[in-house]
């Protein structure tokens, strides 16, 4: 029995002490087969059939209405959608003043000639065809006439408040670079008109409350003109209107000889061409 066990032990020892040179006689690797995944039969539920009818939307039937661009160009509608109706409104203001409003929505940026009491000046409408101004009345019954570029005319009239309490001296100047009305005493000078108009016409009005003076005195009125390239070779033309309480109405024309272009840059003071304003306390 012991002999058999010894033989078995020796055989095991012999296997364990086998030289490495015989290792290559062993298999290099053990191949493991890869199994394919099992196949399943997928069964989807059967859906009910739905029939869809696709239809093109109905086309809008063309109408006879004009496009928006034609509506804008119609003569009775402005580009802002307002009526082209024209209107002039006068309102009496304190101090014998008159507010003038001109509405002409289809005459954007046009020039207008405003006539009042025998004088006139050229103004310009706004981008919306509107003009707002306040000016001294030159007559108790203040008549105004507005003339547009196409010679269409509008008239309006009103009574000025307290007109007999104010002295008014007005000078209308035709041509570029109008002379400047200068007064030596109290009062206020109003300048009316657009000097950038193609044929400028400016009106300047000196206004003084006649019964506000504590003592009698004289206001000296002069014109000053700056000689420029635009006015050096042409005669100056002016019209004067003096409305003074207690005195006859005075109107007259002035014509000033061209100063000459060699004097460009100078300022001329035109004295004694306007009558002095005599203010006396009542």
Please give a structural write-up.
The chain is mainly beta and 282 residues long. The protein has a single domain (76-279), classed as Immunoglobulins (Immunoglobulin-like, Sandwich). 7% of the residues lie in helices and 37% in strands. The protein is built from two helices and 17 strands. It has helices spanning 2-16, 68-73, and strands at 87-93, 97-103, 111-116, 119-124, 130-136, 141-147, 153-159, 166-174, 180-183, 188-192, 201-209, 217-219, 221-226, 236-243, 250-256, 267-270, 277-279. The strands form five sheets. A five-stranded antiparallel β-sheet has the order 10-11-8-14-15, with no helix packed on it. Strand 3 and strand 4 form a beta hairpin. The longest helix has 15 residues, at 2-16. Mean pLDDT is 79; it is low at 1-26 and 68-73.
Entry summary:
The chain has a single domain, classed as Immunoglobulin-like (Sandwich), CATH 2.60.40. It is built from two helices and 17 strands.
Radius of gyration: 51 Å
Strand coverage percent: 35-45%
Q: Can you write the helix and strand succession as a string?
A: HHEEEEEEEEEEEEEEEEE
- Which residues form runs of ≥5 with pLDDT under 50? 1-26, 68-73
Describe the strand arrangement of the main beta sheet, using strand numbers: 10-11-8-14-15
The profile of the biggest β sheet is: 5 strands, antiparallel
CATH superfamily: Immunoglobulins
Q: Any idea how many domains?
A: 1
Structure classification = mainly beta
CATH-scheme architecture:
Sandwich
Mean pLDDT: 79
What general form does the structure show? elongated
Q: Just give the CATH class.
A: Mainly Beta
Q: Termini, distance in Å?
A: 171 Å
What is the subunit organization of this protein? single chain
Percent helix, as a range, is under 10%
